Amino acid sequence: MKKVLIGLTALFMTGMTLLCLCYPNQTFSMSERRKLKQFPELSFETVISGKFMQEFEAYVADQFPFRDQWRALKASIAVDVLGQKDNNEYYEKDGHIAKIEYPLNEASISRATGIFQRIMAEQLAGKNCKVYYSVIPDKNYFLGEEHLQLDYQALLGQMQQEMAGAEYIDIMPYLEVADYYYTDTHWRQECIADVAEVLGNAMGVNVKSSYETVKLDKPFYGVYYGQSAFDADSEALYYLVNDTLNTCVVYDYQNDHETTVYDMEKAYGKDAYELFLSGPISLLEIRNEQAKTNKELIVYRDSFGSSIAPLLAEGYAKITLVDIRYIGSRQVANFIDFENADVLFLYSTSVLNHSETLK
After folding, report:
1. Tens digits of per-residue pLDDT, 210-221?
2. Using CA atoms, how far apart are residues 73 and 89, in angstroms rounded to an integer?
3. Beta strands 167-168 and 130-136: pairing type?
4. Ranges of the chain whose pLDDT falls below 50
5. Residue 67's Cα: distance from chain center in Å?
6. Among 100, 152, 248, 292, which residue has the least CB neighbours within 10 Å?
7. Spatial distance between the Cα atoms of 117 and 88, rounded to a whole number of angstroms
Protein backbone atom coordinates (compact mmCIF):
# COMPACT_ATOMS: atom_id res chain seq x y z
CA MET A 1 0.00 0.00 0.00
CA LYS A 2 2.87 2.33 0.87
CA LYS A 3 4.52 1.68 -2.50
CA VAL A 4 1.24 2.34 -4.30
CA LEU A 5 0.82 5.65 -2.46
CA ILE A 6 4.39 6.69 -3.27
CA GLY A 7 3.88 5.71 -6.90
CA LEU A 8 0.63 7.66 -7.19
CA THR A 9 2.25 10.70 -5.59
CA ALA A 10 5.19 10.52 -7.98
CA LEU A 11 2.84 10.10 -10.92
CA PHE A 12 0.79 13.09 -9.80
CA MET A 13 3.88 15.27 -9.35
CA THR A 14 5.27 14.22 -12.74
CA GLY A 15 1.94 14.93 -14.40
CA MET A 16 1.62 18.36 -12.79
CA THR A 17 5.21 19.22 -13.79
CA LEU A 18 4.51 18.30 -17.41
CA LEU A 19 1.25 20.22 -17.30
CA CYS A 20 3.03 23.31 -15.94
CA LEU A 21 5.56 23.13 -18.76
CA CYS A 22 2.83 22.83 -21.41
CA TYR A 23 0.31 25.23 -19.89
CA PRO A 24 0.35 28.62 -21.68
CA ASN A 25 1.28 31.67 -19.63
CA GLN A 26 -1.54 34.03 -18.73
CA THR A 27 -0.96 37.78 -18.56
CA PHE A 28 -4.01 38.89 -16.59
CA SER A 29 -6.36 37.37 -14.02
CA MET A 30 -9.92 38.48 -14.70
CA SER A 31 -11.11 37.04 -11.41
CA GLU A 32 -8.51 38.89 -9.32
CA ARG A 33 -8.34 42.01 -11.54
CA ARG A 34 -4.56 42.06 -11.63
CA LYS A 35 -1.59 41.31 -13.86
CA LEU A 36 0.04 37.93 -13.36
CA LYS A 37 3.76 37.40 -12.84
CA GLN A 38 5.76 36.46 -15.93
CA PHE A 39 8.94 34.39 -16.19
CA PRO A 40 11.69 36.42 -14.50
CA GLU A 41 14.96 37.54 -16.03
CA LEU A 42 17.56 34.78 -15.83
CA SER A 43 21.11 36.08 -15.43
CA PHE A 44 24.17 35.55 -13.27
CA GLU A 45 23.30 38.65 -11.22
CA THR A 46 19.67 37.66 -10.57
CA VAL A 47 20.67 34.11 -9.58
CA ILE A 48 23.46 35.21 -7.21
CA SER A 49 21.28 37.87 -5.57
CA GLY A 50 18.41 35.43 -5.06
CA LYS A 51 16.07 37.67 -7.03
CA PHE A 52 15.48 35.04 -9.70
CA MET A 53 14.24 32.36 -7.29
CA GLN A 54 12.10 34.84 -5.40
CA GLU A 55 10.40 36.02 -8.58
CA PHE A 56 10.27 32.48 -9.98
CA GLU A 57 8.24 31.31 -6.96
CA ALA A 58 5.77 34.14 -7.52
CA TYR A 59 5.66 33.29 -11.23
CA VAL A 60 4.90 29.60 -10.58
CA ALA A 61 2.17 30.49 -8.09
CA ASP A 62 0.53 32.86 -10.59
CA GLN A 63 0.86 30.57 -13.61
CA PHE A 64 -0.10 27.28 -11.95
CA PRO A 65 -2.58 25.34 -14.14
CA PHE A 66 -6.25 25.73 -13.16
CA ARG A 67 -5.18 28.23 -10.54
CA ASP A 68 -8.67 29.64 -9.92
CA GLN A 69 -10.07 26.16 -9.27
CA TRP A 70 -7.29 25.37 -6.79
CA ARG A 71 -7.85 28.71 -5.03
CA ALA A 72 -11.57 27.98 -4.72
CA LEU A 73 -10.85 24.52 -3.29
CA LYS A 74 -8.38 25.96 -0.81
CA ALA A 75 -10.89 28.62 0.31
CA SER A 76 -13.63 26.02 0.76
CA ILE A 77 -11.40 23.76 2.85
CA ALA A 78 -10.17 26.66 4.98
CA VAL A 79 -13.64 27.93 5.86
CA ASP A 80 -16.02 24.98 5.47
CA VAL A 81 -13.77 22.13 6.62
CA LEU A 82 -11.21 23.67 8.96
CA GLY A 83 -13.65 26.23 10.35
CA GLN A 84 -11.41 29.26 9.84
CA LYS A 85 -13.18 32.60 10.12
CA ASP A 86 -11.52 33.96 7.00
CA ASN A 87 -9.47 32.94 3.98
CA ASN A 88 -6.46 35.21 3.49
CA GLU A 89 -8.35 38.03 5.30
CA TYR A 90 -11.53 37.61 3.21
CA TYR A 91 -14.70 36.41 4.88
CA GLU A 92 -18.38 35.98 4.11
CA LYS A 93 -21.28 37.09 6.28
CA ASP A 94 -24.96 37.52 5.44
CA GLY A 95 -24.14 37.00 1.77
CA HIS A 96 -21.55 39.78 1.76
CA ILE A 97 -17.90 39.10 0.99
CA ALA A 98 -15.64 41.50 2.86
CA LYS A 99 -11.94 41.97 3.47
CA ILE A 100 -10.56 42.62 6.93
CA GLU A 101 -9.09 46.12 7.23
CA TYR A 102 -7.01 46.15 10.42
CA PRO A 103 -5.30 47.66 12.32
CA LEU A 104 -5.62 51.41 12.11
CA ASN A 105 -2.45 52.81 10.55
CA GLU A 106 -2.10 56.16 12.28
CA ALA A 107 1.01 57.05 10.29
CA SER A 108 -0.90 56.44 7.06
CA ILE A 109 -3.76 58.67 8.20
CA SER A 110 -1.27 61.41 9.02
CA ARG A 111 0.37 61.05 5.63
CA ALA A 112 -3.03 61.46 3.93
CA THR A 113 -4.05 64.47 6.01
CA GLY A 114 -0.59 65.95 5.47
CA ILE A 115 -1.15 65.84 1.71
CA PHE A 116 -4.62 67.35 2.11
CA GLN A 117 -3.26 70.13 4.32
CA ARG A 118 -0.50 70.87 1.81
CA ILE A 119 -3.12 71.19 -0.94
CA MET A 120 -5.10 73.55 1.28
CA ALA A 121 -2.03 75.67 2.09
CA GLU A 122 -0.41 75.78 -1.35
CA GLN A 123 -3.40 75.75 -3.71
CA LEU A 124 -6.55 76.80 -1.84
CA ALA A 125 -5.26 79.61 0.37
CA GLY A 126 -6.63 83.00 -0.70
CA LYS A 127 -9.01 81.41 -3.24
CA ASN A 128 -12.19 81.94 -1.18
CA CYS A 129 -12.85 78.19 -1.11
CA LYS A 130 -15.11 76.36 1.29
CA VAL A 131 -13.35 73.11 2.24
CA TYR A 132 -14.99 69.92 3.48
CA TYR A 133 -14.00 66.32 4.09
CA SER A 134 -15.88 63.07 4.59
CA VAL A 135 -14.95 59.45 5.31
CA ILE A 136 -16.51 56.44 3.60
CA PRO A 137 -16.53 53.37 5.90
CA ASP A 138 -15.73 49.92 4.54
CA LYS A 139 -18.24 47.08 4.80
CA ASN A 140 -16.61 45.69 7.94
CA TYR A 141 -18.05 48.62 9.87
CA PHE A 142 -21.55 47.22 9.38
CA LEU A 143 -20.88 43.48 9.67
CA GLY A 144 -20.37 43.30 13.42
CA GLU A 145 -17.35 42.69 15.62
CA GLU A 146 -16.88 38.99 14.85
CA HIS A 147 -13.93 39.98 12.68
CA LEU A 148 -11.21 42.56 13.32
CA GLN A 149 -12.23 46.14 12.54
CA LEU A 150 -10.64 49.54 12.37
CA ASP A 151 -11.00 51.75 15.41
CA TYR A 152 -13.32 54.26 13.76
CA GLN A 153 -13.52 56.47 16.82
CA ALA A 154 -9.74 56.85 16.80
CA LEU A 155 -9.71 57.33 13.01
CA LEU A 156 -12.30 60.11 13.06
CA GLY A 157 -10.69 61.73 16.09
CA GLN A 158 -7.33 61.83 14.34
CA MET A 159 -8.88 63.20 11.17
CA GLN A 160 -10.62 65.95 13.15
CA GLN A 161 -7.34 66.98 14.79
CA GLU A 162 -5.34 66.93 11.56
CA MET A 163 -7.90 68.45 9.17
CA ALA A 164 -8.09 71.89 10.73
CA GLY A 165 -9.63 74.38 8.29
CA ALA A 166 -11.95 71.81 6.72
CA GLU A 167 -15.50 71.01 7.84
CA TYR A 168 -16.35 67.35 8.49
CA ILE A 169 -19.49 65.94 6.85
CA ASP A 170 -20.65 62.80 8.64
CA ILE A 171 -22.26 60.38 6.17
CA MET A 172 -21.82 57.21 8.22
CA PRO A 173 -25.27 57.33 9.91
CA TYR A 174 -26.87 57.30 6.44
CA LEU A 175 -25.14 54.11 5.30
CA GLU A 176 -25.78 50.42 6.00
CA VAL A 177 -24.39 47.17 4.65
CA ALA A 178 -27.26 46.90 2.13
CA ASP A 179 -25.83 50.01 0.43
CA TYR A 180 -22.79 47.99 -0.66
CA TYR A 181 -22.44 45.29 -3.31
CA TYR A 182 -22.32 41.71 -2.04
CA THR A 183 -19.18 40.80 -3.98
CA ASP A 184 -17.44 44.17 -4.20
CA THR A 185 -15.91 46.82 -1.97
CA HIS A 186 -17.98 49.70 -3.41
CA TRP A 187 -21.34 51.19 -2.56
CA ARG A 188 -24.37 50.84 -4.83
CA GLN A 189 -25.29 54.05 -6.64
CA GLU A 190 -29.03 53.37 -6.43
CA CYS A 191 -28.73 53.30 -2.63
CA ILE A 192 -26.75 56.48 -1.98
CA ALA A 193 -28.93 59.32 -3.31
CA ASP A 194 -29.63 60.21 0.33
CA VAL A 195 -25.89 60.32 1.05
CA ALA A 196 -25.45 62.72 -1.88
CA GLU A 197 -28.19 64.90 -0.40
CA VAL A 198 -26.40 64.95 2.98
CA LEU A 199 -23.18 66.07 1.27
CA GLY A 200 -25.01 68.67 -0.80
CA ASN A 201 -26.95 70.10 2.13
CA ALA A 202 -23.76 70.41 4.20
CA MET A 203 -22.13 72.32 1.34
CA GLY A 204 -25.17 74.58 0.95
CA VAL A 205 -26.57 73.21 -2.31
CA ASN A 206 -29.70 71.26 -3.13
CA VAL A 207 -28.91 68.10 -5.09
CA LYS A 208 -32.18 66.31 -4.47
CA SER A 209 -33.60 64.92 -7.68
CA SER A 210 -35.75 62.16 -9.14
CA TYR A 211 -34.07 59.29 -10.97
CA GLU A 212 -34.92 56.32 -13.10
CA THR A 213 -33.10 53.17 -12.03
CA VAL A 214 -31.61 51.18 -14.93
CA LYS A 215 -30.34 47.62 -14.61
CA LEU A 216 -27.19 46.69 -16.51
CA ASP A 217 -27.98 43.66 -18.67
CA LYS A 218 -24.88 41.80 -17.53
CA PRO A 219 -24.29 39.85 -14.30
CA PHE A 220 -21.94 41.69 -11.96
CA TYR A 221 -19.11 39.92 -10.15
CA GLY A 222 -17.27 42.33 -7.87
CA VAL A 223 -13.58 42.42 -7.14
CA TYR A 224 -13.99 40.39 -3.93
CA TYR A 225 -15.57 37.53 -5.86
CA GLY A 226 -12.27 36.62 -7.50
CA GLN A 227 -9.90 37.80 -4.80
CA SER A 228 -11.59 35.78 -2.06
CA ALA A 229 -12.09 32.64 -4.23
CA PHE A 230 -15.39 32.05 -2.44
CA ASP A 231 -18.28 30.44 -4.28
CA ALA A 232 -20.78 33.28 -4.70
CA ASP A 233 -23.62 34.23 -6.99
CA SER A 234 -23.53 37.14 -9.39
CA GLU A 235 -25.57 40.23 -8.57
CA ALA A 236 -27.23 43.05 -10.44
CA LEU A 237 -25.61 46.43 -11.10
CA TYR A 238 -27.93 49.43 -11.39
CA TYR A 239 -27.30 53.05 -12.36
CA LEU A 240 -29.42 56.18 -12.06
CA VAL A 241 -30.48 58.44 -14.92
CA ASN A 242 -32.50 61.63 -15.34
CA ASP A 243 -32.58 64.63 -17.68
CA THR A 244 -29.70 66.35 -15.89
CA LEU A 245 -27.37 63.37 -16.10
CA ASN A 246 -28.39 62.64 -19.69
CA THR A 247 -27.25 66.10 -20.75
CA CYS A 248 -24.11 66.37 -18.60
CA VAL A 249 -20.90 66.61 -20.58
CA VAL A 250 -17.84 64.86 -19.14
CA TYR A 251 -14.31 65.78 -20.18
CA ASP A 252 -11.52 63.31 -19.51
CA TYR A 253 -8.28 65.32 -19.18
CA GLN A 254 -6.17 62.19 -18.78
CA ASN A 255 -7.14 60.85 -22.21
CA ASP A 256 -8.04 64.22 -23.73
CA HIS A 257 -11.52 63.43 -24.95
CA GLU A 258 -15.16 64.12 -24.22
CA THR A 259 -17.26 61.31 -22.80
CA THR A 260 -20.45 60.69 -20.81
CA VAL A 261 -21.40 60.05 -17.20
CA TYR A 262 -21.87 56.34 -17.87
CA ASP A 263 -19.27 54.56 -19.98
CA MET A 264 -21.10 51.61 -21.52
CA GLU A 265 -17.95 50.24 -23.13
CA LYS A 266 -16.32 49.93 -19.71
CA ALA A 267 -19.53 48.41 -18.34
CA TYR A 268 -18.95 45.36 -20.53
CA GLY A 269 -15.22 45.21 -19.86
CA LYS A 270 -13.21 43.58 -17.09
CA ASP A 271 -14.88 45.56 -14.27
CA ALA A 272 -18.47 46.69 -14.71
CA TYR A 273 -18.10 49.25 -11.88
CA GLU A 274 -15.98 51.26 -14.32
CA LEU A 275 -19.31 52.13 -15.95
CA PHE A 276 -19.31 55.07 -13.52
CA LEU A 277 -17.26 57.91 -15.06
CA SER A 278 -14.98 55.43 -16.88
CA GLY A 279 -13.30 54.12 -13.74
CA PRO A 280 -9.84 55.21 -12.52
CA ILE A 281 -9.23 58.55 -14.28
CA SER A 282 -6.79 61.05 -12.78
CA LEU A 283 -8.65 64.22 -13.74
CA LEU A 284 -12.06 64.78 -15.26
CA GLU A 285 -14.80 67.38 -15.33
CA ILE A 286 -18.58 67.09 -15.27
CA ARG A 287 -20.42 70.06 -16.79
CA ASN A 288 -24.11 70.41 -16.01
CA GLU A 289 -25.65 71.99 -19.11
CA GLN A 290 -28.94 72.58 -17.23
CA ALA A 291 -27.44 74.13 -14.10
CA LYS A 292 -29.39 76.91 -12.40
CA THR A 293 -26.26 78.07 -10.61
CA ASN A 294 -22.66 78.92 -11.45
CA LYS A 295 -21.28 77.08 -8.41
CA GLU A 296 -18.31 74.76 -8.86
CA LEU A 297 -17.19 71.75 -6.84
CA ILE A 298 -13.77 70.11 -6.77
CA VAL A 299 -13.68 66.57 -5.34
CA TYR A 300 -10.46 64.85 -4.32
CA ARG A 301 -11.59 61.26 -4.39
CA ASP A 302 -10.96 57.55 -4.86
CA SER A 303 -13.08 55.04 -6.80
CA PHE A 304 -16.10 55.51 -4.52
CA GLY A 305 -16.39 59.05 -5.89
CA SER A 306 -17.09 57.79 -9.41
CA SER A 307 -20.61 56.68 -8.53
CA ILE A 308 -21.64 59.47 -6.15
CA ALA A 309 -20.25 62.48 -8.04
CA PRO A 310 -22.97 62.34 -10.74
CA LEU A 311 -25.59 62.58 -7.97
CA LEU A 312 -24.08 65.93 -6.91
CA ALA A 313 -24.35 67.39 -10.41
CA GLU A 314 -27.82 68.81 -9.77
CA GLY A 315 -26.34 71.47 -7.49
CA TYR A 316 -23.33 72.56 -9.54
CA ALA A 317 -22.49 73.95 -12.95
CA LYS A 318 -19.18 72.12 -12.90
CA ILE A 319 -17.69 69.31 -10.84
CA THR A 320 -14.00 68.50 -11.18
CA LEU A 321 -12.85 65.09 -9.95
CA VAL A 322 -9.22 64.64 -8.95
CA ASP A 323 -7.67 61.27 -8.17
CA ILE A 324 -4.22 61.89 -6.70
CA ARG A 325 -3.42 58.20 -6.85
CA TYR A 326 -2.79 58.81 -10.54
CA ILE A 327 -1.71 62.46 -10.71
CA GLY A 328 0.67 64.32 -8.43
CA SER A 329 -1.20 66.62 -6.03
CA ARG A 330 1.14 69.49 -6.90
CA GLN A 331 0.33 69.13 -10.61
CA VAL A 332 -3.37 69.72 -10.13
CA ALA A 333 -3.05 73.51 -9.90
CA ASN A 334 -1.87 73.52 -13.53
CA PHE A 335 -5.33 72.39 -14.63
CA ILE A 336 -7.81 73.80 -12.10
CA ASP A 337 -8.96 77.25 -11.08
CA PHE A 338 -9.91 76.95 -7.40
CA GLU A 339 -11.36 80.46 -7.08
CA ASN A 340 -14.70 80.48 -5.16
CA ALA A 341 -15.09 76.69 -5.47
CA ASP A 342 -16.35 74.22 -2.92
CA VAL A 343 -13.66 71.59 -2.25
CA LEU A 344 -14.47 68.15 -0.88
CA PHE A 345 -11.95 65.50 0.23
CA LEU A 346 -13.99 62.29 -0.05
CA TYR A 347 -12.06 59.11 0.75
CA SER A 348 -12.72 55.55 1.81
CA THR A 349 -11.03 54.11 4.87
CA SER A 350 -9.21 51.56 2.69
CA VAL A 351 -7.33 54.40 0.94
CA LEU A 352 -6.79 56.49 4.07
CA ASN A 353 -5.36 53.46 5.85
CA HIS A 354 -3.02 52.79 2.88
CA SER A 355 -2.18 56.34 1.86
CA GLU A 356 1.06 55.34 0.19
CA THR A 357 -1.11 55.27 -2.95
CA LEU A 358 -1.63 59.06 -2.74
CA LYS A 359 0.83 61.36 -4.48
Report:
1. 999 999 999 999
2. 16
3. parallel
4. 12-13, 15-18
5. 24
6. 292
7. 35
